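Need residues for this backbone.
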């Protein structure tokens, strides 16, 4: 499969998963309890991935450091989403739209640090999506 196929599948799965998270909160699950259950389930998924694919786990110290930082950032970001969705006035679609606009941070950091290029069309798309995010709040 191409990268786009994987990205679209991830898009759909994250959308459904985020909706299910809001349903769990609406039905009485705490944000912190939700985060704990999700993190534990991710450990099970990671173990299954390792058993199925046996990926190389010995990496350079730099790669391991970036991997740990990625796990901390995404884990804390997910927890903040759960806390935001647990607020009575929070709308699931708005919370997840704001959270998922994190791609703009990724794009800017990749541009600045990794020197990835951005076309005029891509910059316009980022601006349009961020503008839409601001219209939601």
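Answer:
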């Amino acid at each position: 499969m191409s990268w786009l196929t994987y990205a679209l599948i991830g898009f759909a799965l994250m959308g459904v998963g985020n909706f299910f998270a809001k349903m769990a909160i609406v039905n009485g699950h705490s944000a912190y309890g939700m985060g704990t259950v999700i993190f534990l389930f991710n450990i099970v998924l990671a173990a299954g991935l390792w058993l199925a694919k046996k990926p190389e786990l010995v990496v350079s110290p730099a790669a391991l450091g970036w991997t740990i930082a990625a796990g901390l950032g995404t884990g804390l970001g997910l927890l903040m989403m759960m806390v935001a969705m647990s607020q009575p006035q929070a709308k699931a679609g708005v919370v997840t739209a704001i959270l998922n606009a994190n791609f703009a941070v990724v794009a800017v950091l990749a541009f600045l640090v990794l020197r990835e290029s951005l076309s005029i069309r891509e910059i316009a798309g980022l601006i349009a999506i961020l503008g839409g995010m601001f219209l939601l709040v």
